[in-house]
Design a protein that fits this description.
Structural class: mainly alpha
Largest sheet: none
Strand content: under 5%
Radius of gyration: 24 Å
Helix content: 55-70%
Shape: elongated
Number of strands: 0
């Protein structure tokens, strides 16, 4: 198992100000072994790896929530753009190529 955790996330997660504690029970041995390997590979603690993984997960959840909130506005804007171009979207270069071919 590979965790896409950046060194920056580990540094942030292991920094001063972390005040909450969390107990995780029944972690499968293979998952725990992978996490320990990750910590050893990065020369950091298992706690820092877990904090970084939790921060990464929370960040992805925040971004997903924000995208879901923005989706209706993005769809409305897309419809406005299509309506403004009468349903046909072409780039300027496509128009120029078409004109050139018609000559």
């Amino acid at each position: 198992m590979h965790y896409d955790i950046t060194n920056d996330a580990i540094m942030m997660a292991s920094g001063v100000g972390a005040v909450s504690q969390l107990t995780v029970r029944d972690v499968p041995e293979n998952v725990l072994a992978d996490l320990r390997d990750e910590a050893a590979d990065r020369h950091t603690s298992l706690n820092a790896i877990l904090c970084a993984a939790l921060e990464d997960y929370a960040g992805r959840r925040r971004r997903l929530r924000m995208m879901r909130e923005l989706l209706p506005a993005m769809e409305a804007l897309s419809h406005e753009i299509l309506a403004a171009h009468r349903g046909v979207l072409t780039s300027e270069s496509a128009s120029l190529l078409r004109e050139d071919r018609e000559r």
